[in-house]
Amino acid sequence: MMKRLSLGLLILLVLLASTAWVYYSYQKNALIRQDAVAAEACQKQGGRWTKGIFATGPLEQKVLGGHWSCEFTYADGGKQCTSDSDCQGNCFLPDTKTDALDPNGYVYGICQSNSSEPSCFRLRSIEAPIKQAPQQVFCF
Fold first, then answer.
1. What is the pTM of this model?
2. What digits encode the pLDDT tens for the residues 42-97?
3. Which domain of life does this protein belong to (predicted)?
4. CA-CA to 7 of 20 to 30 Å: which in 15, 23, 75, 126?
5. To 5 degrees, how large is the angle CA 105–CA 106–CA 110?
């Protein structure tokens, strides 16, 4: 009786494991097909399908190995800005806060170069230059 029960449990375990593997393979293939469609749509819109890398701080630590996304280059990348409305992308504070100060001590940002450029020092939307360094608000 115990041998039958053990054999039955073993067969059940093998069936469950093979079902999980089939499901995993199906999902992986579906994602590959989905990525191919997304890459084609990205390129048709003038973007570049690329594997992005997230930064987790000033040391630019690379985590998660990145993810695939559509990257767009912005014509105003690198331009001085005071808010997101000044840029095609976002207005970021440079990596070192002192680089963002003009001769009068006001803080300016720099327009994002492309849609996948990471930064931990995003300049909050403001209507004029400010005379203090903004807080670190988000790392992505």
1. 0.51
2. 888 888 887 765 544 433 344 445 567 788 889 999 898 877 888 988 887 766 55
3. Bacteria
4. 23
5. 125
